[in-house]
Hints:
The complex is a heterodimer. Chain A is built from 18 helices and 32 strands. Chain A is α+β, with helices and mostly antiparallel strands. In chain A, the strands form eight sheets. In chain A, strands 3-5-1-13-10-11-12 form a seven-stranded mixed sheet, sandwiched between helices. In chain A, strands 7, 8, 9, 14, 15 and 16 form a six-stranded mixed sheet that branches. In chain A, helix 9 (356-374) runs parallel beside helix 17 (731-743) and helix 16 (652-671) packs across helix 17 (731-743). Chain B is built from seven helices and five strands. Chain B has a five-stranded mixed sheet with strand order 2-1-5-3-4, sandwiched between helices. Chain B is elongated. Chains A and B meet through helix 1, helix 3 and helix 16 of A and helix 3, helix 4, helix 5, helix 6 and helix 7 of B.
Amino acid sequence: xxxxxxxxxxxxxxxxxxxxxxxxxxxxxxxxxxxxxxxxxxxxxxxxxxxxxxxxxxxxxxxxxxxxxxxxxxxxxxxxxxxxxxxxxxxxxxxxxxxxxxxxxxxxxxxxxxxxxxxxxxxxxxxxxxxxxxxxxxxxxxxxxxxxxxxxxxxxxxxxxxxxxxxxxxxxxxxxxxxxxxxxxxxxxxxxxxxxxxxxxxxxxxxxxxxxxxxxxxxxxxxxxxxxxxxxxxxxxxxxxxxxxxxxxxxxxxxxxxxxxxxxxxxxxxxxxxxxxxxxxxxxxxxxxxxxxxxxxxxxxxxxxxxxxxxxxxxxxxxxxxxxxxxxxxxxxxxxxxxxxxxxxxxxxxxxxxxxxxxxxxxxxxxxxxxxxxxxxxxxxxxxxxxxxxxxxxxxxxxxxxxxxxxxxxxxxxxxxxxxxxxxxxxxxxxxxxxxxxxxxxxxxxxxxxxxxxxxxxxxxxxxxxxxxxxxxxxxxxxxxxxxxxxxxxxxxxxxxxxxxxxxxxxxxxxxxxxxxxxxxxxxxxxxxxxxxxxxxxxxxxxxxxxxxxxxxxxxxxxxxxxxxxxxxxxxxxxxxxxxxxxxxxxxxxxxxxxxxxxxxxxxxxxxxxxxxxxxxxxxxxxxxxxxxxxxxxxxxxxxxxxxxxxxxxxxxxxxxxxxxxxxxxxxxxxxxxxxxxxxxxxxxxxxxxxxxxxxxxxxxxxxxxxxxxxxxxxxxxxxxxxxxxxxxxxxxxxxxxxxxxxxxxxxxxxxxxxxxxx
Amino acid sequence: xxxxxxxxxxxxxxxxxxxxxxxxxxxxxxxxxxxxxxxxxxxxxxxxxxxxxxxxxxxxxxxxxxxxxxxxxxxxxxxxxxxxxxxxxxxxxxxxxxxxxxxxxxxxxxxxxxxxxxxxxxxxxxxxxxxxxxxxxxxxxxxxxxxxxxxxxxxxxxxxxxxxxxxxxxxxxxxxxxxxxxxxxxxxxxxxxxxxxxxxxxxxx
Lengths: 759, 205
């Protein structure tokens, strides 16, 4: 045992080693751009150098003259394909080569295909465009942006949450906070580059591309290329980091497929880091105004949260995190409103805890400000406002262990040693600050299918078209099968990341473990039924134990009374060599067509605040210590403690790692990450890993993750709440509060940098 | 500059400096004679192929490569060893780290032609033929020092370099000397723990 493998507590699974660990440390895990492809040609993108206008002429002569260039796909060449659709599967409605209109900087204007990578890159750099250039609107304060209410613009955000009479409560409140907060543009920057490899065999198209949604992409790509979805296969067995960025399919996939068909050869296009900033999705910048009113007793009486989000001109991408912030505490009254601001930018998309990261940052920063205004301990302030029921619909929480999280995290952190006076804690040249914040993430699940095969020698094969993006879902699906079928993990193999497998929903919204494990469990249970019926049947090894409870353990069928039959003997009695079950899971509340929609790549999500019986969330509490150099204002985070309760934990190792990674993301959001925008040209400036800052090893010291036991039978059959996105919610507010505690400076605009603390 | 000189341990930085100064001097020094030379003797075009012999994981490879081909692309696209990863192609992420003559090098910042005769070790060359993992590989598994696994080959090669250099003395040293290898899943504390374990095992051995 070491720190990476916490001892399981109640309702927590063993810290089983990742099923693909050996492949990953030996370089054998095949990411999509690693797949050896015979006779492959190389693609390189050329992108626009303006953000708004039209391409009047494209000059490709010099590019075509580069030795080795095979083809250039550009305007007119995609006409036979349909334009992309914006939604959960498609990143944007912009079909860059369907139309010479330029919607954003870095929009694809051509794809060069050549014999070598070097020739493709050289040629792509020689492509020149003449533009009818218009003045672009970059972001919130730019001239020419269009603002509209967000509610109803997206199926994911139907209405602004409200409760009670906010105006009256606000007018009457004794203590008030009215502050503005903002979060910057951020890009996921998974270390794996985005890539597409397209291979045609007759009418059959295979795409190797890192994807969080192989089924959805198959259907959407078939639609764009007017193919039978049965002839399209998306393969993505290992994904080199995703965080949402590989959820929606971008326009590139169809363009590369068309190029491969035109030259009659496989084409691989690995997008360079710089071009990814404009051709992929990102987290758009947000602004917030929070009004909070409370009585002297610390009870919140009024909570107002207004949010503004940037999106592209054509697509109404909205995250609307007010649906979570409005349900966080026992507010007397709630008023929220979210607005979209359309600018000349590429369409944003999901990035780790898309709604909660920015919105909860604003809320939790305000909570700390209110605690300060009330002269109250911030933990105590949250305890006082802990709700019995969520304030918007009056529904109960399926489970809510937030206070337990606060208790366990504050103990481990040593919160009681904190002197609440600003600037009071110091060690040598370093000002010490301590802060805390709440993490929340909706618990959802979606329909999912899985196939499980069990053979007489105890071998288990699990097949499910979900995606191993580093979460450990392949491992926990295997654990579920091993547990239900009574075999060791060494007997289990798990296939994922292929649209030829039983369909799974998009690996987003922290739904995978719940959805996949529920489906795998169902398939395993069907196998159990068959084995038990056979084992207890007439003349069978356990004949006569029909009423006794049977179980599978150590490759045996066992009875409660200690009798057992070897698996091989039960299979022999059945006269079969393998049992295979295909199971479909649909969460409670699913529509009658929910499962057929899964096959069509449109999984319904259930849970969060959408269910009738209760609202479903996972919670956590994070405590951060910052140290700020009194001369240079350098900001360090020597330690962070987070306690999280997320229902059944399948594997304490993978759960801890995900939460730890999330908390470090939170530190990055607090102190490092921001995509800078040139306001005149609506262009991303720091488009590489040198200038887009992410935490490096030296930025991180102690990270302590506490897995708080919680049991919740309402959420889904597996009892699992997702936690991939929980860890980085609230962290930035905890850091901001700690910075305030150390310096007396309340920084409301992320990221917090040295220059914010000088003077 | 002869091949022999090129392969005598010049760093990328030195190579760049040398090239820049050579380029600045060459036109003056060479222009009279160059004009008189026949067409066939003109300097190599960047697109020309060169015969390159490199040794990777103790095996020799004779390749015909575009002079611009990075060692990283040579390994992945020409040798067929895709364990070494491309994360930025600009020397900013560390995913492409390999060992060249035992020292860690970013293979995206090294032209393949610069590596004639050198011994290159990639992640595929670490485990012994009987399947026993290198102590760093095993420690990465034990401490769950990765999630998606994409930066892992680079982290492992860099960790070996870090230990060999004697830069793994303390956890703070490890953090500092491993900061050229980004892990977006942020397994950093586990990576440090893994390197401490591997360092101690290597010392005992």
